[in-house]
Write a structure and sequence with these properties.
The protein has about 475 residues and is of the alpha+beta class. The strands form 5 sheets. The chain has a 17-stranded mixed beta sheet that branches. Strands 19, 21, 22, 24, 25 and 26 form a 6-stranded mixed beta sheet that branches. The chain is built from 4 helices and 33 strands. It has helices spanning about 20-45, 50-75, 80-100, 100-125; strands at about 130-135, 140-145, 150, 155-160, 165, 170-175, 180-185, 190-200, 205-220, 230-235, 240, 245-250, 255-265, 265-270, 275-280, 280-285, 295, 305, 310-315, 320-325, 335-340, 350-355, 360-365, 370-380, 385, 390-395, 410-420, 420-430, 435, 440, 450-455, 460-470, 475-485. The model is unreliable at about 1-10 (pLDDT under 50).
Length: about 475
């Protein structure tokens, strides 16, 4: 392309130019490329959430994906209100996004995600948990909701609402809940899970258990949102704790009598239209007619003196040996019950002696192995107080590894299951080694297996350190990171 005119004499006048088709094409390519780069820049900025609109879009997209997955996983009456709430929040998030209210849309999307995750967590309970049998001994059976067959428990199981757990006369089981409560089901008992509820928005947690017969001990951790509670009920009685407490409930189904005792903290006990608040070391009985009896005081638990927890005794094979157990005297106690078992839940007892009048016993010639022991005080009327802490000692049946050993013990984690503020840790180390998690000693079985429930200290990232130490002092350390967003 060429344009121009004649130049005046002596001057150079340039008012024409020539543009080739090639230049025009290159200019167009440049403009298109520049426009594309600008579009890509703003697109990537929005996609990575660097703008309010981008952040809202990112959370909205995530909420839609989780809701779609939760819809497929939601089954049963319990899931219906949760998935409906997730849907309502998601629809509100979409509407506010269309109205360019990006901050509000983002908040609604996050809330919807919480409800959807609740559904997904309950449907994938093997990798997380809301309730789980994490320790059991002897014959323990489970009947799943809407099933008619009792199955023998052979491993750690996630529990759902409607599940029933039954222990034989020599069986026992411990259940850990997402609210931090550990319930111990005593021998000869039947317990049903009635409710497992958590509001993702308010963090209110509610757990309801129904004791059909036998006894339970519930240790609640506290620290949950206002309005949270852990409840155990029988045919005639409801007992509820809202903070850190230890409570026992016994229900005689034949006599329809319920006895509730509080070892520490507080609990509210109700029957019919009446209720009473129990403080530490108080109990109340509800007989068949459904009226609260007057409150009674129970004896405090004895303080154990020796041996210290996890003590190891090394005796020479073939020679006489003895192990002495001591505890402090309890005021008003006339006798003590001593229980010894080789199982931490005391499902099968080696010794159950209720009439010890002294505060020490000598055990001669114990065989090699681990022993758990605890003591309860009894008054002159035969009423028994709370059991002491459980301690463990071990009698070495063979010479342990010597100081020349320089090989650190093996340390392997079998399960590491976080749920809310709790983590269940199952692992294995070598026999006779000790294990500590964040400085707290953990019970290690004779074969090196160990199980622990650890509560995280705060919201956000947490790091747990697990240390195994053998008898020669060699150590193996592991660190695991846990992210908590439930406080």
């Amino acid at each position: 392309m060429t344009t121009g005119r004649q130049a005046a004499q002596g001057n150079i006048l340039l008012d024409w130019f020539t543009v080739s088709y090639r230049s025009i094409v290159l200019a167009l390519v440049f403009l298109v490329g520049a426009g594309g780069a600008v579009f890509l820049y703003f697109y990537l900025k929005a996609a990575t959430g660097d703008t309010p609109e981008g952040a809202a879009l990112q959370e909205l997209t995530r909420a839609e994906r989780l809701f779609s997955e939760a819809e497929s996983a939601a089954h049963g009456e319990q899931a219906a209100p949760v998935i409906n709430q997730a849907g309502r929040l998601l629809e509100s998030a979409r509407r506010t996004f269309r109205d360019h209210e990006f901050e509000e849309s983002r908040g609604l999307s996050v809330q919807s995600q919480g409800f959807s995750r609740k559904i997904l967590d309950s449907s994938t309970a093997e990798s997380s948990f809301t309730a789980k049998i994490y320790r059991f001994e002897g014959d323990v059976k489970i009947k799943r909701v809407k099933q008619f067959v009792w199955e023998t428990i052979t491993g750690n199981l996630a529990l759902k609402v409607g599940d029933q757990i039954k222990t034989s006369s020599s069986g026992s089981a411990q259940i850990v809940y997402f609210d931090g409560t550990i319930t111990t089901l005593k021998p000869g008992s039947l317990l049903e899970i009635r409710e497992l509820f958590e509001d993702p928005a308010t963090k209110v947690r509610k757990v309801r258990e129904r004791l059909n017969f036998g006894g339970v001990h519930a240790a609640t951790q506290g620290g949950n949102a206002q309005g949270s509670f852990h409840e155990v009920s029988t045919e005639t009685t409801i007992a509820r704790t809202q903070d850190r407490a230890q409570m026992s409930m016994e229900f005689d189904a034949a006599a329809r009598t319920t006895r509730t005792s509080v070892e520490s903290g507080e609990a509210e006990v109700s029957t019919g239209g009446s209720s009473v608040k129990l403080a530490s070391l108080e109990s109340v009985t509800v007989p068949a007619e459904g009226k609260l009896s007057p409150k009674e005081n129970i004896l405090s638990s004895p303080s154990l003196v020796e041996p210290i927890d996890q003590r190891v005794f090394m005796f020479v094979p073939g020679k006489e040996s003895s192990t002495t157990l001591k505890w402090d005297r309890v005021a008003a106690a006339s006798a003590y019950r001593l229980q010894i078992s080789q199982q931490p839940l005391f499902g099968l007892l080696l010794l159950n002696k209720p009439d010890i009048t002294s505060t020490s016993v000598v055990l001669p010639d114990l065989a090699g192995g681990s022993y758990y022991w605890r003591v309860a005080a009894r008054d002159g009327a035969g009423n028994e107080g709370a059991f002491s802490e459980i301690r463990k000692f071990r009698v070495g049946s063979e010479r342990e590894r010597g100081p020349e050993d320089r090989v650190p013990p093996a340390l392997q984690l079998v399960d590491f299951m976080p749920s809310g503020a709790l983590v269940i840790i199952r692992g294995r180390t070598e026999a006779a080694a000790s294990v500590a998690i964040d400085g707290q000693m953990v019970d290690v079985e004779d074969d090196g297996a160990f199980t622990a429930v650890v509560k995280m200290k705060h919201d956000g990232p947490n790091t747990l350190e697990i240390v195994a130490q053998d008898t020669a002092g060699n150590e193996t350390r592991l660190k695991k990171n846990v992210y908590v967003e439930t406080f």
